[in-house]
Give the backbone structure.
Amino acid sequence: MADIRVTVWNEFRHEKIHESVSKVYPDGIHQVIAGFLQEEDDLQVRTAVLDDPEHGLSDEVLDNTDVLVWWGHMAHGDVDDAVVAKVVRRVWSGMGFIALHSSHFSKVFKSLMGTSCDLKWRAENEKERIWVVEPSHPIAAGLEQEYFEVPEEEMYGERFDIPAPEELVFISWFAGGNVVRSGCCYRRNQGKVFYFRPGHETCPTFFQSEVQLVIKNAIRWAVPNRGPKVTFGRSQPLEPLS
Ligand code: ZN
């Protein structure tokens, strides 16, 4: 089987200006994510950041991307609308899209969802318990228990204004009492979209093995399946009409 071509995109701003972030991710969140993905034989990984020309998402890069992994937070507004439109069209044509943590508010994810994607939040470093609610789902494969915990995370809570997920793989509970749908699958025309909640920039969440496993599984789930070419518009009858 051909390698899965993964592009890990990060806005890469917090790491440059906030010491609380750079001490956890000195080379950027994207480098940590790319690092654990590169350990997998079937994944071919590159990175792109906001400040690259065209945000690192040229046609050449997108032509060679099966799954785009996205982390953004403080600079959603700096992402060029033309690039957003291009990425959304790619997803419609089959490119997988994995939105991590605060990327719930990225222009690409909001455009794909068509809702505000707003939620409750609280950055108090509380425990997150992530329950597997669809254990047979490929994104949950290899998780050994019915839940796993991230010791310190930002809280995101319901209501999370997303369309009802087509498949809900995880629900998170937080020490402060909130819950949120935290592993959400969607199909958008030929493309697959997965939202995965944990990954606050001041927490070492992306070093945690369960989180890494979920992201790897999500990439393999979101791979374009090379199904039939889709056409729209006026359609000739396949049988003679009387
Ligand atoms: Zn956060």
